[in-house]
């Protein structure tokens, strides 16, 4: 099984959603759908700097547009392969005027863990949070309730 398919399945399990098969090559959009969210899953396969990760404006714009089709909130989940980390990027607002002209932004993991969670990229304001591990089913609580 390809790594991306396995990653989409893990994310769908964590969020108690359904994986959308063939999402890249069909009329179906997004990678995972829940009752509330349409999720785009991104993973990094090559060895990366463990202290930070990159978010691209085109990823955010794509999931915002696709989520409108399903009447869901857009969500991006980033997972560096080889780790148990899942970084959830949720859209706070889309402004009429861009705050900056950047096409991508590097997120420093330590900053997020210390409380800096709101970022601007182009005209999109978003929040970054970390999720890790497996769903806490025994406690009757799922990660989807934390989003």
Give your account of this protein's structure.
The protein is of the alpha+beta class and 147 residues long. It has a single domain, classed as Trna Endonuclease, Chain: A, domain 1 (3-Layer(aba) Sandwich). Helices cover 21% and strands 36% of the residues. The strands form two sheets. It has a seven-stranded mixed β-sheet, with helices on both faces. A two-stranded antiparallel ribbon has the order 4-7. The longest helix has 14 residues. The radius of gyration is 15 Å and the shape is globular. 26% of the residues are buried. The C terminus is likely disordered.
Q: How far is the first residue's CA from the last residue's CA? A: 28 Å
Structural class: alpha+beta
Number of domains: 1
Radius of gyration, taken over Cα atoms and rounded to an integer in Å:
15 Å
The H/E string reads HEEEEHEEEHEE
Strand content: 35-45%
Largest sheet: 7 strands, mixed
Shape by Cα distribution = globular
**Would you count the extended β strands for me?**
9
User: What's the CATH C level?
Assistant: Alpha Beta
What is the helix content?
10-25%
Kindly report the CATH topology.
Trna Endonuclease, Chain: A, domain 1
Arrangement of strands in the largest sheet: 1-2-3-5-6-9-8
Q: What is the overall pLDDT average?
A: 80
- How many helices? The count is 3
CATH architect. name: 3-Layer(aba) Sandwich
């Amino acid at each position: 099984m390809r790594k991306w398919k396995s990653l989409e399945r893990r994310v769908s399990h964590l969020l108690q959603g359904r994986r959308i098969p063939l999402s890249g090559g069909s009329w179906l959009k997004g990678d995972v759908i829940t009752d509330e969210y349409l999720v785009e899953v991104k993973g990094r396969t090559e060895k990366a700097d463990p202290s930070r990760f990159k978010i691209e404006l085109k990823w955010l714009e794509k999931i915002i547009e696709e989520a409108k089709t399903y009447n869901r909130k857009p969500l991006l989940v980033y997972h560096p392969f080889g780790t148990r980390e899942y970084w959830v990027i949720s859209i706070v607002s889309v402004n009429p005027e861009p705050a900056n002209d950047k096409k991508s932004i590097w997120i420093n993991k330590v900053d997020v863990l210390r409380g800096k969670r709101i970022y601007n990229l182009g005209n999109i304001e978003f929040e970054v949070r970390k999720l890790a591990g497996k769903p806490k089913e025994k406690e009757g609580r799922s990660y989807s309730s934390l989003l």
